[in-house]
Amino acid sequence: MKRICLCLCLLLMIVACDDENDGGRYPDVLTSFADVITDKSGTIEKMNDGDGISYSVSNASGGYKKDTLYRVVAQYRLVDESSIYLYNTTKTISPVPVPSNHIKGGFKTDSVRMQGIWLSAGYINIVLQIEGAGEAHSFHFGQDSISVSGEHRLVSLRLYHNRGEDAEYYTHRAYLSVPLKQYQLADGDTISMGVNLYGEGMKYYKFAYNQ
Predict the structure, then answer these.
(1) What are phi and psi of 183, to 5 degrees?
(2) In angstroms, what is the C-alpha Rg of the chain?
């Protein structure tokens, strides 16, 4: 069974990129949140794109944990209908949500700026603009509740963000991806994600699940 490489500790540290550090520019490049999967030798052998379409990877890239799934932002080009050439990957912040009251020290919701949020195959993908001066920020996803109405469920989540003592000097980009497969969602279920935004306070983004 493939292992899912999501986090090493309860609170993940920020993996942020400035606009000038986006991994370079390539001809005919596509960029997507994706799952990349390694084989028994630790080489990336397959990528599932944001729509859940699976491709083989034509250029072997090794040095990873064997038999592991990584959630990444991938830069690639199509070789043909079933394979890609993988230029670059950036790991996302992708811990499995935990009950909000299980996070030690209280549930912190320091402000962020939303660049994009959307539902894809098995995940909510989030791109944030973070104000900081280079110190590590902590992120997680808190599960506030799961409620049932008739035949459908509402999964209510919130973004945990602890900026610590970092000063607000520069804007950095952070890529996050919320795993949803553990909820075994059915058509008609709803996922709500609360994010504390500068100038707006807590804003809730709702997504209707449809396989």
Answers:
(1) -85, -10
(2) 18
Tokens of 107: 């549930």
The structure's pTM equals: 0.86
The pLDDT tens digits of the residues spanning 101-140 come to 999 999 999 999 999 999 998 999 999 999 999 899 999 9
Eight-state DSSP code of residue 151: T
CA–CA separation, 107 and 143 (whole Å): 11
Give me 9's structure tokens.
């500790």
136 and 38 in one domain?
no
Those residues whose C-beta lies under 8 Å from the C-beta of residue 167, and which sit 6 or more positions away, are 132, 133, 135
Total length of the chain: 211
Say how many Å lie between the first and final Cα of the chain, rounded: 24
Beta bridge partners of 93: 176
Q: Let me know whether 141 and 170 are in one domain.
A: yes
14-to-8, 38, 47, 67, 173 alpha-carbon distances in Å: 13, 24, 24, 25, 9
Residue 159 sits in a domain whose CATH number is 2.60.40.2370
